[in-house]
Amino acid sequence: MDLYIQIIVVACLTGMTSLLAHRSAAVFHDGIRPILPQLIEGYMNRREAGSIAFGLSIGFVASVGISFTLKTGLLNAWLLFLPTDILGVLAINSLMAFGLGAIWGVLILTCLLPVNQLLTALPVDVLGSLGELSSPVVSAFALFPLVAIFYQFGWKQSLVAAVVVLMTRVVVVRYFHILTLNPSKSLLAW
């Protein structure tokens, strides 16, 4: 019964996000937002907008979405909502947008466990390597405040902030073991 409720909730959620993207009301990917007015005003057709949405999103889906989900066993927004943006922009009508989004959610939810079991059955640790794919992206998120400091206050303050961030990271990793992997190597535990 729990699985059915999860499937219904995820299908409704991904269906709605796809429908919202189709109607140009809301998208998950910030990079797609500027092209939506062109789509609404007729300067761009759905195929062109879908191609742009695919090009902007597929890297995040492959590097962060899939690898993080397979490594942890948890669904994440990149894997659920970036593809629904693409499907919603490409769909020719609202019903198709909702249906494609719902199908995507059901596929992700039902195929996650078998794919994870298949990859853990292999003699080589594939999941560890997949988890490492998302490490540079997650680490790069720490650079966004440094870029903001650079634009706001200049390169000297940005350099000082970068040194503070790097030293803090070294100290935390070296001396504080706050997060450790469970024996199953699938989830972080305190």
Automatic annotation (TrEMBL):
The chain crosses the membrane at residues 6-28, 49-70, 90-113, 133-153, 159-176. Keywords: Membrane, Transmembrane, Transmembrane helix. It holds the Pfam family YhfT. InterPro entries: Uncharacterised_YhfT. It comes from the Bacteria. The keyword ATP-binding does not apply. This is Inner membrane protein. The lineage of its organism: Bacteria, Pseudomonadati, Pseudomonadota, Gammaproteobacteria, Enterobacterales.
